[in-house]
Design a protein that fits this description.
The protein is of the alpha+beta class. The chain has helices at 2-20, 78-87, 134-145, 179-182, 193-202, 253-261, 276-280, 310-319, 322-330, 362-371, 386-400, 416-421, 442-446, 462-472, 477-494; strands spanning 42-43, 58-63, 92-94, 100-102, 105-112, 115-120, 157-164, 167-172, 214-220, 224-229, 244-249, 267-268, 285-290, 294-300, 334-336, 377-383, 404-410, 427-433, 497-503, 505-510, 517-518, 523-524. Strands 1-13-20-12-2-11-10-9 form an eight-stranded mixed β-sheet, with helices on both faces. It has a six-stranded mixed β-sheet with strand order 15-19-14-18-16-17.
């Protein structure tokens, strides 16, 4: 009976979504289905340009959301990272698992448990012709340390100092094994000191200067960003394989698909799975895939009435059918998770369902609501993209069953952070890209260091803080995994958010496009794209 009820319920939910969100379907009649051959999705691989490759083309990339700011410490939003990681360089880039690999760093070593030393390459040129030195790195990272986007990642950092013109030291308050990986975060992009001082004082970031592979050419807010190859990029063995990148903003999912199918764009980096079956039968495009660490979740402001009661929070975790959310959000392409701490299954110490606590059980949810003395209430679910809106309508229906009447409100992604800060997002649905190392997200997501940044649930608990410190204090990953398992069991009881699923990562490209790469969070390394 339960399966039958669930299927009927999901059918009516889907009908409601189509009514509320008309236009989200695939306009098949507007596209050529190709030869009809089925092309299996391919995992992206690193590729070197062939001798006869065309390295002077403009590559058009479509994404769902506009960027927010050219100031790296302004936001952790991925739509920002797609662009600024092309303009600026970091001490470390990341690989397909988000682990650190040197970029500006030529050599580095762990001198002691609390002291790291990093030596950058000599002769690195900024876009305005100056040489990058340790002064720029120290200034930029000290500024990053004070920013809200990454503050918690630098909580353990005690001092960032210059040794000589090309060497810096970072000392930490205790062992911090994840430091190199923390330095891959987009907020750690190195902004030259002379430019940053001038720009920050005027609060005008419209003409960014970095040391990355590209220089900003043009931006039309809400429409596009164009960056051109920087021919003096310091690492000529890994320079841009294209003349320029045009990031085109197309909010609607099928619109992005059509852009690649018609040749308007070369790569869609935010692929909507509603078009999955159609693109597999189109011989003119190629769908690339990668396992993901992006966790879609239902968050709620733990400071607001009823959300400050953990029994109500637990009730929400029982009330929502995660399988239905995955089906509606990403057409079943992913894995459901019964977690409350944004752990993807591949993270260090990840437990799929801590204490086997949660399942889809509306009766249990109603019991918990009664135990909490909660008669039901009205609230609001904030979203800012298509997938989240579809999921929100499903969640809205499930919450209604336990007496929670939630209105779905869509806003612009650029104001989402202000909604969180001003406590105007009682509930919200969004995604979070997890690092393999939980130390890089637990504190930011669920401690005081993340307030004003990405602790969007406003959850604070000294017991969790103690576990985070324990996990950070050892270089032994077996010890750390055990601690993070305990933290997940603790969070299952606290239920500060309701994690839903991890989606499969896709990118849709012209079949002839070379150099496509995807990691666990997003398509990346756009400098390798070429024909």
């Amino acid at each position: 009976m339960k399966k039958s009820y669930k299927g009927i319920f999901l059918f009516f939910v889907l009908m409601m979504i189509l009514t509320l969100l008309g236009g989200c379907g695939s306009p098949d009649e507007k596209t050529d289905a190709g030869s009809g051959d089925v092309n299996e999705p391919k995992a992206a691989v690193v590729s070197k340009p062939e001798p006869d490759a065309n390295l002077d083309k403009d590559i058009v990339i479509v994404q769902a959301l506009d960027m927010i700011s050219f100031d790296p410490i302004n936001t952790s939003d991925l739509s920002n990272g797609y662009v600024i990681n092309s303009i600026y360089s970091k001490l470390f880039d990341f690989d397909e698992d988000l682990n650190a690999e040197p970029e500006l760093v030529e050599n580095y070593e762990l001198i002691s448990d609390t002291e790291w030393q990093f030596q950058i390459y000599k002769g690195i040129k900024t876009h305005d012709g100056q040489e990058l030195t340790a002064d720029d790195v120290v200034y930029s990272l000290q500024r990053t340390q004070q920013g809200t986007a990454i503050g918690a990642l630098f909580k353990s950092v005690d001092k960032i100092s210059k040794v000589d013109d090309y060497t810096i030291n970072i000392t930490t308050k205790g062992p911090y094994p994840a430091l190199p990986t923390a330095l891959t975060h987009q907020a750690c992009c190195i902004v030259p000191k002379h430019y940053c001082e001038q720009t920050a004082s005027a609060d005008n970031w419209t003409k960014p200067v970095g040391t990355g592979r590209y220089v900003l050419k043009n931006r039309v807010i809400g429409d596009s960003i164009v960056v051109e190859r920087f021919d003096d990029y310091f690492n000529q063995d890994d320079k841009a394989c294209n003349k320029s990148l045009t990031f085109k903003i197309i909010p609607e999912g099928s619109g992005r698909t059509i852009a690649v199918e018609t040749g308007e764009a070369d790569l869609n980096i935010v692929f909507d799975t509603v078009d999955y079956e159609r693109v597999l039968s189109n011989s003119n495009v190629q769908l690339w895939d990668h396992y993901s660490q992006t966790v879609w979740h239902l968050g709620y402001d733990n400071t607001q009435k009823w959300f400050d009661n953990k029994l109500v929070r637990q009730a929400i975790n029982y009330a929502v059918d995660r399988e239905a959310c995955l089906e509606v959000g990403h057409n079943g392409h992913g894995t459901v998770v019964y977690n409350n701490a944004t752990f993807a299954p591949t993270c260090l110490g990840a437990v799929e369902n801590p204490k086997d606590k949660y399942s889809y059980d509306p009766e249990k949810a109603k019991e918990l609501m009664a135990e909490a003395g909660c008669p039901g209430f009205e609230t609001e679910i904030i979203v800012f993209r298509d997938e989240a809106e579809r999921i929100a309508v499903v969640v809205q229906a499930y919450l209604k069953e336990i007496g929670i009447d939630a209105k779905v409100t869509r806003i612009e992604n650029s104001v989402f952070a202000s909604y969180i800060v001003d406590h105007r997002a009682p509930m919200f649905i969004t995604s979070w890209g997890s690092y393999w190392d939980p130390d890089l997200f637990l504190s930011r997501r669920f401690s005081s260091e993340g307030i004003g940044g990405v602790n969007r649930t406003w959850y604070l608990n000294p017991e969790l803080d103690t576990m985070i410190e324990k996990g950070r204090s050892s270089f032994d990953n077996d010890v750390r995994a055990e601690i993070y398992g305990e933290a997940q069991e603790f969070m299952a009881e606290e239920a500060p958010e309701c994690d839903l699923y991890v989606n499969t990562m896709y990118a849709l490209a012209n079949k002839d496009l070379k150099g496509v790469e995807i990691n666990v969070e997003m398509p990346y390394h756009f400098h390798k794209l070429h024909y």
